[in-house]
TrEMBL record:
Keyword Cell wall biogenesis/degradation: no
Signal peptide: 1-18
Species of origin: Halarcobacter bivalviorum
Single GO MF annotation: ligand-gated monoatomic ion channel activity
Solute-binding protein family 3/N-terminal domain boundaries: 37-263
Protein name (Swiss-Prot/TrEMBL): Amino acid ABC transporter substrate-binding protein
Family annotation (Pfam families): SBP_bac_3
Cellular component GO terms, alphabetical: cell envelope; membrane
């Protein structure tokens, strides 16, 4: 009996070790290290997180974070330009290892993919035609027939627009730039989108032409997305994020926020 119990214990231990080995083989982190390359899906049209400079190079907040991440892994960083409406499918089918594209963590998306802890928290705000200044004092004043609200297709801005403005007309566009241009050109009354983008838009094209209703309508944590069933990669990402936030000596997180979310010098590189 003792020999049988011992044999069963050995068999169970071998199976556990085999499971661990199989999990490690399937780990995205292990694949990245073997390949020597971290591939990140992103949609390069969302300032200041990812955009193209005058030379066509992808730059931005997420790019710098990705390069830092790759450096800590000892691999090279490769951004994979991907249309927003297909970015989750691209991750799931293995075209990239991670989504680093200022993606809002939502319960609906979380059904398909996993998220690391938030690295930035934002909210949706509204830009309105300057002619409406005084008449529209807060976002809810726009929820009336006769008003047209624009935003980008397939983002949380669209979800919020349809939820908050059920009596107004909501129109979506392929890019945030096209949507905002509708308000600039007098073809729409308001544009709803992420707060960082709207703040930057008001320092440039919207200055003197639009009014920013800057009270966020939502709480939106942004997170890196990975495929489900990958605890190794998720653990590494959360530890990496915690280190970048808490290491005040290096202060990588603080410097990154100042470079992309507070200063606007980088605008000269993309105009």
């Amino acid at each position: 009996m003792k020999k049988l119990v011992l044999a069963l214990m050995v068999f169970a231990t071998i199976n556990l070790l085999a499971d661990d080995i199989n999990l490690w083989k399937k780990s995205t982190l292990n694949e990245i290290l073997k390949r020597g390359e971290l591939r990140a899906c992103l949609d390069p049209g969302y300032m200041p997180f990812e955009m193209k400079d005058k030379k066509g190079r992808i730059i931005g907040y997420d790019i710098d974070f990705g390069k830092k991440m790759a450096k800590e892994m000892g691999v090279k960083f490769t951004p994979v330009s991907t249309a927003w409406d297909g970015i989750i499918a691209a991750l799931i089918t293995g075209k990239c290892d991670i989504i680093m594209s200022a993606m809002t963590i939502t319960q609906q998306r979380n059904l398909k993919i996993n998220f690391a802890d938030p690295y930035v928290v934002i909210g949706q705000t509204v830009l309105i035609d300057k002619n409406l200044e005084g008449k529209i004092k807060e976002a809810k004043d726009l929820d009336k027939p006769g008003y047209t609200i624009v935003t980008k297709l397939g983002v949380t801005g669209e979800i919020v627009a349809r939820k908050f403005f059920q009596n107004a007309k909501v129109i979506t566009f392929e890019t945030e730039a096209d949507a905002a241009a509708e308000v600039l050109n007098g073809k729409a009354h308001a544009f709803i989108y992420d707060q960082p983008y709207n703040i930057l838009f008001m320092t440039d094209k919207g200055k003197g032409k639009l009014v920013h209703l800057d009270t966020p309508l939502t709480y939106e944590p942004l997170g890196w997305a990975i495929r489900k069933g990958d605890p190794d990669f998720l653990n590494w990402l959360n530890n990496f994020l915690r280190q970048t936030k808490e290491d005040k000596l290096v202060d990588f997180h603080g410097k990154l926020n100042k470079k992309w979310l507070q200063d606007t010098d980088w605008l000269k590189r993309v105009q």
